[in-house]
């Protein structure tokens, strides 16, 4: 879906909370309330890094009911593509950014009778809002939180103080403590849900243990972010119109065609309705199909493309437009 | 401009009529001369003045009478409102959305004042002035969905999203085209669409579901659905089939223009912020054939659509007994001239 609906925000506070982790507080410049959000939601933050737009998703960790501000936490990635380095080195209080509306691809199951949250490192962020929700609704939960060391871990002291040591269990690998995933999942009452957010190794370990101990797949949740809408820029030749348009990193073919003043049929702008189906006349490279309209055979055939969501990588693309 | 609300009925003496101005804002759903199934979803953005898209939640001259009819249906059958326990937060989301939209679109009729969690809601057409605490069930006379549903045109369904599916876990449904909330509550998207012919094999529901699972906050979408109803009856429910089913045998060449109605549903879908659930508003608009043919383009086009409609769809939509009579009557209003693109009157 096209990301046309964005919210302008200003950084009202940015502070280190642990080794390589900063917490950023975002408010609307006009003082109006932000939309409420559901625990587990994230926003895509757009940053203007010296003329280059960077977009990264971050989980919201503020109180879901507090519409005055959003908070995110950012780990400086070791192999940063630029977004987390920008936030750590350049971003300061008073700077303006834009964010998407909140999107939730990691919601708590509202029917759950008990929730087990397993976090590794910066994976703690979505759980902070989730725990606020569970505590408010008086739903049983426990957090198992693995960190490198006391200095690298963020928020664990506050969480133990807020929710009690019986619900918050930190594990520090520098002290040879291991999060006992298998034993944890072995004996849980019916109606329990487990959520994992952290490095792939931790996620895989939880998924394996859940499978081995017979958990229903619907009760096991892993964090997902919305795939960034854009991709590498490319040119498209429009045969009937007799022009070539450039498709930028953060726009769709449809948007580029419309910007060139050409009226292309479209309806849903989300790759579902089929209206913008366009014939491919020449293609030296690979079509990147992101729609749910074309069949697998049609996608493999390479003769059609849904220009509202799909992209191209290669040297030459010509369309019947 | 203040709306002049009509006094009219949707049962017994059926005094429901559209004013000439309201006919012109009717959501005629056909943009070409034949009907084809499609995933006809588009962004629900405000549209032209004087159309039903002027406000995202449309209020029209039938508002007061529709709310009176809804109250009668609920009194006779309280199961038209149902909400599973895990949907309470979504109910509050819906109450907020519908109050905000109606107050923004029609400030002369509705107003919402917030002071922290203390909210004051004024609904002038229905004579309501309530102050309550947002989030506190006991401060409202009904559960939040039922409270705001008794003050909003259109059926309301709240669907929960989990396991890559959508689940019909709450609703207030009194103006439905022959489906039952009591039967469908708790079902998933594929289950509640089970009875629809042809579309499953075409993959329509697989695509629509994938699209809807990605529905984003602040970007609602809409689609049309349509059928026909004999007499301007809102409550054509399975529960009351014994009251309206036989109406379909009463259509004659003499009364068809007055009795047969095009029934259009404007379905809007909204992501809800606090609960991550989704609101389906299914808003029903009714227009008699006599009213429809006052717009020449619609008369020509609807005649052609109805004439070429596949038999499976005629049967599914319950029009088998009176389709031919209606096509015959409409043919007198179709001179064969070409029709212009789009749905609006010329």
TrEMBL record, chain A:
Known cofactor(s): FMN
Keyword Isomerase set for record: no
Residue ranges occupied by any 2Fe-2S ferredoxin-type domain in the UniProt entry: 234-321
Database matches in InterPro entries: 2Fe-2S_ferredoxin-like_sf (IPR036010), 2Fe-2S_ferredoxin-type (IPR001041), 2Fe2S_fd_BS (IPR006058), Beta-grasp_dom_sf (IPR012675), DmmA-like_N (IPR054582), FAD-bd_FR_type (IPR017927), FNR_nucleotide-bd (IPR039261), MRET (IPR050415)
Domain FAD-binding FR-type residue range list: 4-109
PANTHER family for the chain: CARNITINE MONOOXYGENASE REDUCTASE SUBUNIT, NADH OXIDOREDUCTASE HCR
Name of the protein this chain belongs to: Ferredoxin-NADP reductase
Organism of provenance: Pseudochelatococcus lubricantis
TrEMBL record, chain B:
InterPro entries membership: HODM_asu-like
Pfam families, A to Z: HODM_asu-like
Protein name, UniProt field: DUF3445 domain-containing protein
Source lineage: Bacteria, Pseudomonadati, Pseudomonadota, Alphaproteobacteria, Hyphomicrobiales
């Amino acid at each position: 879906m096209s990301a046309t609906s964005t919210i302008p925000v200003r950084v009202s506070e940015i502070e280190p909370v642990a080794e390589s982790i900063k917490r950023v507080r975002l408010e609307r410049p006009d003082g109006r309330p932000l939309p409420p959000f559901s625990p587990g939601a994230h926003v895509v933050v757009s940053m203007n890094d010296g003329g280059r737009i960077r977009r990264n998703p971050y989980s919201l960790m503020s109180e879901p009911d507090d519409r005055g501000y959003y908070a995110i936490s950012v780990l400086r990635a070791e192999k940063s593509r630029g977004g987390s380095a920008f936030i750590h080195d350049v971003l300061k209080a008073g700077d303006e950014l834009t964010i998407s509306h909140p999107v939730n691809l990691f919601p708590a199951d509202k029917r759950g009778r008990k929730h087990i949250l397993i976090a590794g490192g910066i994976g703690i962020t979505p759980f902070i809002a989730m725990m606020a929700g569970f505590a408010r609704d008086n739903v049983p939960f426990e957090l198992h939180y693995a960190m490198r060391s006391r200095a690298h871990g963020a928020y664990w002291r506050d969480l133990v103080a807020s929710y009690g040591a019986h619900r918050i269990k930190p594990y520090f690998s520098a002290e040879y403590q291991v999060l006992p995933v298998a034993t944890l999942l072995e004996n849980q009452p019916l109606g329990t849900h487990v959520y994992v957010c952290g490095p792939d190794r931790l996620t895989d370990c939880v998924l394996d243990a859940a499978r081995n101990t017979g958990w229903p797949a619907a009760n096991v949740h892993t964090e997902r972010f919305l795939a960034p809408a854009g991709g590498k820029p490319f040119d498209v030749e429009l045969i009937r119109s007799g022009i070539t348009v450039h498709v930028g990193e953060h726009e769709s073919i449809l948007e580029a065609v419309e910007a060139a003043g050409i009226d292309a049929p479209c309806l849903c702008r989300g790759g579902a309705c089929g209206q913008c189906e366009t014939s491919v006349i020449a293609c030296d490279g690979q079509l990147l199909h992101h729609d749910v309209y074309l069949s697998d055979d049609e996608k493999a055939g390479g003769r059609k493309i849904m220009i509202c969501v799909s992209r191209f990588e290669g040297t030459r693309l010509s369309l019947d437009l | 401009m203040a709306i002049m609300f009509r006094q009219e009925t949707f049962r017994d003496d059926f005094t429901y009529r559209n004013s000439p101005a309201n006919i012109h804002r009717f959501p005629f759903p056909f943009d070409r001369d034949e009907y084809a199934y499609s995933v006809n979803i588009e962004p629900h953005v405000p549209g032209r003045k004087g159309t039903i898209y002027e406000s995202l939640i449309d209020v029209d001259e039938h508002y007061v009478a529709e709310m009176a009819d809804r109250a009668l249906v609920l009194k006779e059958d309280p199961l038209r409102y149902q909400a599973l326990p895990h949907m309470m937060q979504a109910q509050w989301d819906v109450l907020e959305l519908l109050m905000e939209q109606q107050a923004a679109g029609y400030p002369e009729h509705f107003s919402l004042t917030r002071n922290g969690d203390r909210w004051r809601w004024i609904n002038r057409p229905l004579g309501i002035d309530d102050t309550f605490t947002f989030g506190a069930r006991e401060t409202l006379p009904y559960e939040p969905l039922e409270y705001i549903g008794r003050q909003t045109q259109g059926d309301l369904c709240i669907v929960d999203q989990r396991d890559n599916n959508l689940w019909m876990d709450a609703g207030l449904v009194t103006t439905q085209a022959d489906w039952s909330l009591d039967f469908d509550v708790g079902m998933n998207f594929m289950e509640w669409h089970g009875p629809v012919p042809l579309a499953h094999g075409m993959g329509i529901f697989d695509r629509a579901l994938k699209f809807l699972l990605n529905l984003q906050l602040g970007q609602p979408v809409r689609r049309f659905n349509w059928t026909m109803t004999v007499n301007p009856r809102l409550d054509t429910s399975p529960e009351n089939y014994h009251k309206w089913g036989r109406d379909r045998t009463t259509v004659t060449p003499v009364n068809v223009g007055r009795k047969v109605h095009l029934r259009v549903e404007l379905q809007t879908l909204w992501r809800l912020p606090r609960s991550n659930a989704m609101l389906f508003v299914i808003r029903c608009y009714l227009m008699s054939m006599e009213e429809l043919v006052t717009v020449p383009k619609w008369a020509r086009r609807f005649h052609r659509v109805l004439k070429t409609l596949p038999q499976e769809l005629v049967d599914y939509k319950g029009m088998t007994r009176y389709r031919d009579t209606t096509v015959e009557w409409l043919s007198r209003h179709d001179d064969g001239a070409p029709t212009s693109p789009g749905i609006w009157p010329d």
